[in-house]
Design brief:
Strand order of the largest sheet: 1-2
Structural class: mainly alpha
Largest sheet: 2 strands, antiparallel
């Protein structure tokens, strides 16, 4: 509703309305998917996570093939700015999209036998390599936060000390394997050069009044002066040379004070209720841990990028709310 009001005062009503329409579709999709999860939490939750792994493998394979030019025309099709983008328009979206699948593969390795752990660990290693090749600082931070939180939550919610020992052993092995993958990748000059450039916490285009952080300052000033917002997609063409790169500021511009406050409230409520739900020993708590850890990674990354149209974020929200409010869940809400 806030975005509709903002679209009415937009300098380009049609463009803002289209963006708002896509947002509405995503909200409806998330509600519908949450209801789907709530009907059969374990079966439907696992179905969605398995589908995310399949999608991640396809996207990551495209990114890998493109980055190393393994097929004619693949580099032009599946890379952007010399970075793996896979089936996405932006490398900065590919990396975060792979994170839930990496966590689910880690979960499968934990709950399965030692022999069955090899395949999911291999998939997780391959996906992690492609996150590296996306050269997205936000994706790297996203993965680091999500993996650390997943490991911690899986450890403290484990059913036995044997499970905790297995988590520590697999976590140590995964960390060692990840370091080996990074070291091996850095042997390629193209990877090493881009890694050295992208590993800096601040790039040249981040600084100054026309940089990313300067854009944040402009957005804050516009928010204070425009209670109804300025309309979606209007910041870049009218006030700055690029998008806001902060989803929380962007939502105040796209949907006014009303929409911005409600968006932040929904994200905060998901975080608080999620932490409360984690204390309940439900049958689907391992799946909830995966979705929650990945959600927190995206929540943090939203400070430096616009995630309001990232499809996988709405899938994670649907998983969390569907699992929290599944009527049949042991320890859940009726």
């Amino acid at each position: 509703v806030g975005a509709v009001f903002a679209s009415a005062v937009s300098a380009d009503i049609a463009r803002s309305a289209i963006h708002t329409g896509v947002s509405f579709y995503l909200y409806v999709m998330s509600f519908t998917l949450a209801a789907f999860v709530a009907r059969a939490p374990r079966a439907h939750g696992e179905l969605i996570l398995k589908a995310s792994v399949a999608g991640a493998i396809i996207s990551a394979t495209a990114g890998f093939v493109g980055y190393f030019s393994l097929l004619p025309g693949a580099f032009e099709l599946f890379t952007k700015f010399g970075r793996a983008a896979g089936t996405f328009k932006d490398p900065n979206v590919l990396g975060p999209f792979l994170v839930p699948a990496i966590l689910y593969c880690a979960h499968l390795a934990i709950v399965g036998s030692w022999a069955s752990a090899r395949a999911p660990l291999a998939i997780a290693a391959g996906l992690t390599l492609v996150v590296l090749l996306s050269f997205s600082r936000g994706a790297w931070v996203n993965l680091g936060i999500a993996a650390a939180l997943f490991g911690y939550l899986a450890f403290v919610t484990a059913a036995s000390n044997d499970d905790r020992q297995r988590i520590v052993m697999l976590g140590s092995a995964a960390l060692a394997a990840g370091l080996l993958v990074i070291v091996a990748a850095l042997q390629l000059d193209s990877v090493a050069d881009l890694m050295a450039e992208r590993s800096s916490l601040s790039q040249g285009y981040d600084l100054g009044p026309e940089g990313r952080f300067g854009g944040h300052d402009k957005a804050r000033a516009l928010i204070l002066d425009n209670p109804l917002g300025i309309g979606a997609t209007q910041f870049a063409p009218l006030h700055h040379h690029e998008d806001v790169h902060n989803v929380y500021l962007a939502m105040f511009l796209n949907a006014g004070w009303l929409g911005g406050v409600l968006y932040c409230a929904i994200m905060g409520l998901t975080l608080v209720l999620g932490l409360t739900h984690l204390a309940r020993a439900t049958e689907t708590r391992p799946l909830f841990v995966i979705a929650f850890a990945a959600f927190v990674g995206n929540l943090v990354e939203g400070v430096v990028i616009d995630t309001d149209h990232w499809r996988h974020v709405f899938v994670l929200l649907a998983l969390l709310w569907g699992l929290m409010f599944a009527p049949a869940e042991k320890g859940g809400r009726a």
